[in-house]
């Protein structure tokens, strides 16, 4: 019997898998908890178990290596070991060039981890998991799962479409892999795909006089980032830009980040404020996009900006929107936590307690108590991700910021703000933009239909439309009225107790029908000003059941004007709709086609000159000369710079 030991050298003898990105998404995920123990599972071949263990590793957050095999006399493998990529320790080198080798190989990643999977052939000729050690001695890296050797994937679509290299010649080396990705990105952005996109954006500017886009080049003159928004996005932002979600979860071709600025309109539907392609996930790139977005909206900042829990994004937001309300989307935090801790996702106690920490705590004391319970029961006291989450709690656990409700896990499912473009990752940038336009067109078509329904229909209710409920049906859109109606019905089942009175201010305690949950309400009889400790109005701009209960006690038959936010009303865009025909693009303006033609010619000239230092200097000197001449004639410079270089744009003023 032959024993074949493929135990690792410094490389780990690691066999990387270059599989189609759809692999690993078969029926197995619907049958077992892929993040738990794999003991007892049976498969027909060793490769299936390797892919299965890679799926398990991806869920938990570690890399995989193939190691020892045992074969019979016929050469058939009868036993196979798979281990964590941190298994073993680095062997000391006896080479005289050990220092040089160490510098090339980088950091030591071995920790002596004992986690492993042992597969053995049974009497039926099938392979079966006979041992699965799930205990690791290191931190998991689920966020960077694609950085593990076993997860460094180059999809066939990416490679074949680019024409850069044949799929069967991809080398299993870290540096080669990332260099390949870089070449794929930069070659695409330098080539016809990027040119076609820029040409399309230029054409859009001739059709929409308030269309805005910026293109950024790096020091080598290569296109890196693109941002655009049309005139309607700007108008929508003026009305609904109080709460903005900066979504960076979507990936376009060449693994470019497709970042969208999204809001919610008065029908609780998606509304787009702008979109960008970003080459990398560096703070500088996010800072550029956020700054350009702000400039495109005439420096009007959102009241609240929601982002993912990423350090690079948080740093960029702090610099571009200092002092503004930056918040983390609670729903995304919950999904991230569940994805990170596979073994806990089936734990109802963990799920309920964590969800309460995210959305259900009304006081700091209550939050601290629930958080400590959560951490102690799950043994996560020293977990870095939870520590970081706790340290940033001001960005997600408080309710005194305006969010239109998108931060609430209960309502995000209804909003479904995630974009679903009719495009694939292999779709070219220009084709992607066309698909993007179709998506926005569909959204706006639905918005027109919603506006029409609100102008023609009167909502029905299980109660008679009288008093404050009737007033709500008259001012709010149909969707928002249903939300108000639900709170109104819930207010009926609450009990209200007056605590004390101070001149014209009365203090109440409103208790839910469970007899446990209660909130304090303050009401002024003189001006009908009201506030509640649940902070619902401060968060989403709609009155809570507790305030409605107190209003009912005082026979308030109309919602006070200060509590009717125009963004939720039927008339939020009335002025815009009335002026829409007057704002249509005037194609007779001779400046528009001239501007497009000159922009295109200059852009082509820049592409022609970018590879040569002398020609680049000619372009730069020419820009300075022409700028000085224009300033001399005009006295001021009012031109809008569309193409950014790596150096910051110096805007000239009077």
Automatic annotation (TrEMBL):
State the SMART domains in the record. ZnF_PMZ
Start and end residues of each stretch annotated as Disordered: 1-26
Which is one GO molecular function term here?
zinc ion binding
InterPro entries to which the protein is assigned, alphabetical:
FAR1_DNA_bnd_dom, MULE_transposase_dom, Znf_PMZ, Znf_SWIM
Q: Which residues form the SWIM-type domain?
A: 523-555
Keyword terms, alphabetized: Metal-binding, Zinc, Zinc-finger
List the protein's name.
SWIM-type domain-containing protein
Organism encoding this protein = Castilleja foliolosa
């Amino acid at each position: 019997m032959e024993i074949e030991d493929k135990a690792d050298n410094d490389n780990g003898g690691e066999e990387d898998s270059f599989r189609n990105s759809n692999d690993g998404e078969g029926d197995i995920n619907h049958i077992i908890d892929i993040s738990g123990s794999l003991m007892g599972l049976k498969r027909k071949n060793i490769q299936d178990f390797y892919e299965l263990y890679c799926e398990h590793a991806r869920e938990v957050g570690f890399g995989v290596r193939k190691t020892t095999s045992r074969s019979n006399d016929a050469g058939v493998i009868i036993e196979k070991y798979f281990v964590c990529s941190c298994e073993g320790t680095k062997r000391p080198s006896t080479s005289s060039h050990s220092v040089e080798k160490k510098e090339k190989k980088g950091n030591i990643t071995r920790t002596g981890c004992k986690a492993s999977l042992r597969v053995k052939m049974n009497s039926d000729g099938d392979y079966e998991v006979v041992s699965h050690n799930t205990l690791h001695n290191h931190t998991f890296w689920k966020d960077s799962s694609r950085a593990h050797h076993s997860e460094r994937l180059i999809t066939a679509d990416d490679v074949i479409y680019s024409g850069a290299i044949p799929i069967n010649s991809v080398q299993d080396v870290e540096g080669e892999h990332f260099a390949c990705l870089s070449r794929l990105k930069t070659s695409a952005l330098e080539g016809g795909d990027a040119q076609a996109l820029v040409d399309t954006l230029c054409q859009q500017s001739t059709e929409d006089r308030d269309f805005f886009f910026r293109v950024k080049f790096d020091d080598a003159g290569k296109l890196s980032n693109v941002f655009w928004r049309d005139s309607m996005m700007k108008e929508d932002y003026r009305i609904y830009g109080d709460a903005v979600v900066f979504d960076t979860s979507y990936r376009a071709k060449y693994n470019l980040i497709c970042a969208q600025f999204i809001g919610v309109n008065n029908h609780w539907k998606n509304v787009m404020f702008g979109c960008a392609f970003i080459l990398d996930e560096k703070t500088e790139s996010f800072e550029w996009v956020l700054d350009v977005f702000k400039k495109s909206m005439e420096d009007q900042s959102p009241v609240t900006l929601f982002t993912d829990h990423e350090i690079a994004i948080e740093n960029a937001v702090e610099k571009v929107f200092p002092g503004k309300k930056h918040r983390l989307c609670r729903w995304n935090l919950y999904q991230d936590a569940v994805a990170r801790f596979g073994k806990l996702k089936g734990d109802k106690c963990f799920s309920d307690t964590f969800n309460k920490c995210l959305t259900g705590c009304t006081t700091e004391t209550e939050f601290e108590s629930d958080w400590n319970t959560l951490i102690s029961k799950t043994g996560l006291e020293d977990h870095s991700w939870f520590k970081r989450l706790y340290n940033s709690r001001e960005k997600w656990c408080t309710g005194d910021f305006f969010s239109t409700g998108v931060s609430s896990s209960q309502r995000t499912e209804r909003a479904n703000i995630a974009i679903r473009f009719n495009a694939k990752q292999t779709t070219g940038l220009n084709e992607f933009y066309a698909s993007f336009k179709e998506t926005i067109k569909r959204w706006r078509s639905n918005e027109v239909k919603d506006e029409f329904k609100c102008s023609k229909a009167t909502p029905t209710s299980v109660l008679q439309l009288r008093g404050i409920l009737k007033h709500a049906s008259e001012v709010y859109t149909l969707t928002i009225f249903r939300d108000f109606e639900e709170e109104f019905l819930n207010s009926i089942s609450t009990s209200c107790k007056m605590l004390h009175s101070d001149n014209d201010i009365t203090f109440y305690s409103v208790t839910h029908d469970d007899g446990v949950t209660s909130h304090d309400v303050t009401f002024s009889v003189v001006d009908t000003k009201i506030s509640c400790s649940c902070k619902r109005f401060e968060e989403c701009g709609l009155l809570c059941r507790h305030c409605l209960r107190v209003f009912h006690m005082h026979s308030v038959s109309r919602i006070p004007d200060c509590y009717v936010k125009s963004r939720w009303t039927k008339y939020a865009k009335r002025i815009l709709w009335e002026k829409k025909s007057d704002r249509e693009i005037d194609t007779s303006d001779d400046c528009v086609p001239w501007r497009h033609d000159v922009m295109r010619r200059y852009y082509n000239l820049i592409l022609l000159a970018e590879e040569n230092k002398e020609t680049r200097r000619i372009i730069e000197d020419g820009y300075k000369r022409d700028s000085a001449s224009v300033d001399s004639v005009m006295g001021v410079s009012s031109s809008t710079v569309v193409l950014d270089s790596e150096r910051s744009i110096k805007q000239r003023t009077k």
